[in-house]
Structure formats: C-alpha cells, structure tokens
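thread: overnight batch results

M.L. [08:02]
morning all. the overnight job finished for the chain we discussed friday. pasting input first so we're all looking at the same thing
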Amino acid sequence: MLVSPFFVIPVWYIQPMQVIYIDSFFVINLAVNYLLISATAKLSALRTRHLKFFLAALVGAAYAAVTVLPFTPAFVSALPVRLAFGVLLALIAFGRERNLGRLVIIFFALSACFAGASLLVGRVSFKTVLLTAATAYAVITCVFKFAAARKPAPTSPTTMLRITLGGNQATVIVLNDTGNSLRDPQTGTILPVLNYSAVRSLFKGNTRQILESALTSPEKFSALPGDLKWRLIPYNAVGVSNGLLLAVKAEEITGAASHWFAISPNEINSYGGVI
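M.L. [08:03]
and the structure it wrote out:
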C-alpha cells in the first residue's frame, strides 16, 4: 500500500518496486498528509496551524506504516478503519473549527483526487507521489493568492464626516451601517443619522434650546427659527413605528451623499451616529 491513510494504492500496482522501505514510506506519507491537510485549510480559508497539522499528519503516517507491516491484521486496512482514521486526522487538525463536517468532506475529497491523480500517472513512485501532492498544494495556494489580490480591499467600518452648518463646523466619526435605511423622501438618498451630542456645537442660541427641550419632533419643527432648512423624516426602528426625525440641510457634508442629515435625540452608538 502507498500513501494517504485511507485512500491507499495496492502494492501490486507499484511497478517495478518489490520492496517497501518503512522509513521512506513513513516520511512520504507524513509529507503528503501534511500537504493534504494544509490544502484543506487553504480551500476553507483557515489559518495554517503548523503544529496541529503536523501532529495529524504524523498520526496518519504512523497508521499507514502499520498497515504495511507483515504481522498487521487484515482488518486494520479495511475501508471502515481507513475512513475512521481519515475523520480522526480531520479532528486533530480542525477539531475546534466551525463547520467541521464540511472540512472532513473537503479533506476526503482532496485525498480521493490525489489518489486518482497518482494512479493516473501510471507508474507510482515515491518521487511521483510527493511531486503530485506538492504541485497540487502549490496550485491551490497560487489560486487563492490570485483571488485575494483581485478582491477589493475591505471598507473601513467607520466614515469621517465634516459638516459645515450656519458658519459652524464639526467633524463626526460615524459607523458604516448597512442596516441604515433612512432615506430622503425626495431623492431616495441614504441620510446620516447623527447623535445630537455629536453635532450640538453646530447649533446656537434659541435653536439649541429647542433641540434640547422635551418637545416632540413635530413640535420642535414648528418652533424652530427659519434661518436653517428643516424637515421631518419618517422612520421605523425597534419599538418605534411611524416615527419622525428632525433633519437639517448643511452647507456642506464631506463624506456623505447628501447635504441633509437627521438628528437622533437618543444616543445611537458610541460613535457619532450611522451612515
């Protein structure tokens, strides 16, 4: 038998080799098992854990070596036992990972593909086996690196807004929230929803007093002076249906698609709001 703890190639297929050297057999199995486990991790976008992978490969190589010893009982090489050892290897390598079942399936599939590729070569030798495994691992690694290079860089979780309103300026760090569905009813543009505390410095005098009063949003809207452009924007949230938020138009907002922003009377998050 040759290579892989459970997808094994019969000894009679290996031509012209008549003798198996146990040390070479062990080393080649160790190398191939390690490459198969590492390739499984690559395909599953998992971190390479060299020590755990090496330990799993060591167990698989030891089992493979035992199967070729002349005194080993025949049941040790039986398919159910080989499958059980394959699962054991996956458990050692990936035992604490999520989706363990999927990892086991990928590991089995790679092992089957590798065994088939080795047979396809025609003349199976230690050099051929190791070269096949190393080539497969290199191809998988290159494919993933190429895909990672083409993937757009992850966007920042926050955005900095620079707001100019009534001659006053404020810089606000907001959280990029894909769940923010507050839209300008006229243009359909997503509006930033900002904590009042984050934009308090933009308002002065009577406007600030009204915004900080206990009045409802419609009452504040009616009481606010006309030096700024105000709107009431309908919204829904957890525990709130058909609510209204005050929105004001700034002279300029750098970092947002609209010059309008809504003001939340309650603190939305530890940032300055969401966008």
